[in-house]
Amino acid sequence: MNLSRSSAARPQHVVSESGVLRWLSANGSHPPARIVDADDRMPASEAYRLVSRGTGLLWHGDFHNARQLLSAVSRRLHRNRRTGSSAAESFRLHRQQQARRARALALVLVRLDPGHALNLRGAPQVRTACQEAYGPADTPYVVPLRELLGVIGAGEWRRKGVPVPALGARIHPHYGVFAPTRSEYVDLVAESPMPPAELAFDIGTGTGVLAAVLARRGVERVVATDISARAVRCAEDNVGRLGLAGRIEPLQADLFPPGRAELVVCNPPWLPAKPHSMLDHAVYDPGSRMLLEFLAGVPEHLQPGGEAWLILSDLAERLGLRTRADLLTAISGSGLRVVGRSEARPSHPKAEDPTDPLHAARAAEVTTLWRLAPVGDDTTRT
């Protein structure tokens, strides 16, 4: 899955009651105009009042209590959730509420000292995880606690890996790179009938999981592209771990590499909406840019007799954000035709959660692997 165009942290400076400190966020959070000190004596109601007004809270107390405060503020922000009269309206309100919640929760802050030292009572050791996410730190900086918790969690995932049954191995996601925790799109690539292919392109490779599946299925060489430098480094790491370094070439590029291949695979972001964070770029694609540019460019990057595989959820259709007719028109308008398709129903916690505002759409969601070929290419396919 394709990720953010820019994955670099954005250093700035903020003024707090403790002085001027460097602001650092790899997730695109903006520094607040005003910051006050906070510790274990601050009640959740006061913290909620302050962050709701855009005031940052620089925490000086116990680390566990900071997490508790963040959870309490989050619960208060959830109380006023609304749903719309249609699926599309519910989605619009859901995204607005998610954005407001993310902005507010990013205002609970912690300071890290040089070497990524988190000097709070009860704090875990975060140096390795922060080094992986942010790089070296020679000066103190301030970061949202919520982002730091994500960095810590990503560090654990990177260390332990995510099991991928289709590979019989683990994939190790890096911070800011979408993890292959949903198996249906990987299984579709692992099981769909495949044309003979010496060379394949994996467009928007992310962790490199689909490139690895293609190599394990017998493709001699895979060029795996991603616009995100973080994703390319992550794919290189996983390719090395899997012993596929000689067969998979991760490459930073916006969509296609040079040349033509017998198989071109893409699992683009599924929802045509604005991303609010770095990870959101793996799910939200404003105006379906990546989807439409992939379809438009495929004919120029396929060998005769080759196929393009588009792996796409129909969640956008069920939310009223795109119609099936829109998708088929985009396919035909790009000079492509459908030569086959495989489907899978995803299994994930949100599909089983009736309190989720998008539950009905998620519960009915279907993921499809569309096998596409250029119009006029009548090569026999199975």
From TrEMBL:
Any one GO MF annotation of this record: nucleic acid binding
Alphabetical list of InterPro entries matching this protein: DNA_methylase_N6_adenine_CS, N5-glutamine_MTase, SAM-dependent_MTases_sf, Small_mtfrase_dom
GO biological process: methylation
Database matches in CDD domains: AdoMet_MTases (cd02440)
SUPFAM superfamilies tied to this protein: S-adenosyl-L-methionine-dependent methyltransferases
Compositionally skewed regions (Basic and acidic residues) per UniProt: 340-353
Pfam family, one: MTS
Keywords tagged on the record: Methyltransferase, Transferase
Stretches assigned to the Methyltransferase small domain: 196-312
Region (Disordered): 340-359
The protein's name in its UniProt record: Methyltransferase small domain-containing protein
